[in-house]
Specification:
single chain; 2 domains; 5 helices; Transmembrane protein; transmembrane helix; transmembrane
């Protein structure tokens, strides 16, 4: 939601709100890596110090991967710090434009290729 606030009307935000928003986005970007490091180090300590067995790098990598996934889910669940009243028409137009841009960049958004090419250049009739 903070990105929508930022792209909706960034001129309306104060410098303090922009600073808070920037820090929150940076924390969301780094949270998966920190949780992966903590989970991997925790597995290393568990193996060597508590269970007193040889630490297997596969277990440490598995714990770090699980920590990364948990951190990514956790960073996605963080609530918005700046609450603004948004015009839903502008938000929907922004999301539609973003989706169309992404689809066009990947080659799936061109309606001429998707609809017209399949309906005109199909000489065979469908059996059903």
């Amino acid at each position: 939601m903070d990105l929508k606030v930022l792209f909706h009307n960034p001129d309306e935000l104060t410098d303090v709100e922009l600073h808070v928003l920037r820090n929150k986005i940076q924390q969301q970007q780094l949270m998966p890596y920190f949780s992966a490091g903590i989970a991997g180090f925790g597995m290393y300590v568990l193996d060597n110090k508590i269970l007193r067995r040889f630490s297997d790098w596969k277990r440490i990598a598995l714990a770090a991967s699980a920590g990364f996934v948990i951190g990514a889910i956790g960073s996605y669940q963080v609530r918005s710090t700046i609450q603004r009243k948004l015009d839903m028409e502008i938000v929907e137009a922004f999301e539609t434009r973003y989706a169309q841009t992404a689809l066009n960049m990947s080659g799936f958004g061109n309606n001429h290729l998707n609809a017209v090419a399949h309906s005109v250049s199909n000489p065979k009739q469908k059996p059903y």
